[in-house]
Write a structure and sequence with these properties.
This protein is about 40% helix and about 20% strand. It has a 4-stranded antiparallel β-sheet with strand order 2-3-1-4. With about 130 residues, the protein is an alpha+beta fold. The two termini are about 25 Å apart. The protein is globular. It has one domain: 2-Layer Sandwich (Alpha-Beta Plaits), CATH 3.30.70. It is built from 7 helices and 4 strands, in the order βααβααβααβα. The structure holds 2'-deoxyadenosine-5'-diphosphate (DAT) and magnesium ion. 2'-deoxyadenosine-5'-diphosphate binds next to loops.
């Protein structure tokens, strides 16, 4: 048994397209607990800190523009192996590589706007939760 917490987010494309309910519904049906949830339009500073590992990459500025350009839904999830399992529910970063049934397979076509975010490790989860839920 490993009860974990992770950081999950519905990105601006997901909010704009009305996918918040669908995504929360999947989490609830799966049995993961949403222990915190807020909607906000993040500042560039918070997004730059969140994606610090990608600083300097060609897509970084576009990524920051995109994420700070609309409302997101930020969540703390709790449950058994939730860090890896939420990543599995989202599917691969590139939607065309994601497995059928996953969120990115079902609802996205491009890597630029792939609907959802999830921390990729226990270290990332702790770091990201510290940024978004101070
Ligand atoms: P993930 O979101 O699956 O953790 P990541 O950490 O590698 O993936 O990248 C963060 C986000 O950056 C990703 O969800 C979408 C964007 N991104 C990644 N690679 C990209 C690329 N080649 N072009 C445009 N956006 C990209
Ligand atoms: Mg990542």
């Amino acid at each position: 048994m490993s009860i974990e917490r992770t950081f999950a987010m519905v990105k601006p494309d997901g909010v704009r397209r009305g996918l918040v309910g669908e995504i929360i519904s999947r989490l609830e049906k799966k049995g993961f607990k949403i222990v915190a949830l807020k909607m906000l339009t993040p500042t560039r500073e918070i997004v730059e800190e969140h994606y610090a590992e990608h600083k300097g990459k060609g897509f970084f500025n576009g990524l920051v523009d995109f994420l700070s350009g609309g409302a997101v839904v930020a969540m703390t999830l709790e449950g058994e192996n939730v860090i890896a399992e939420w990543r599995r529910m989202m599917g691969a970063t590139r939607p065309w590589e994601s497995a059928p049934g996953t969120i990115r397979f079902e609802f996205a076509t491009t890597v630029d706007e792939n609907v959802a975010h999830g921390s990729d490790s226990a270290e990332s989860a702790a770091r990201e939760l510290g940024i978004w839920f101070k």
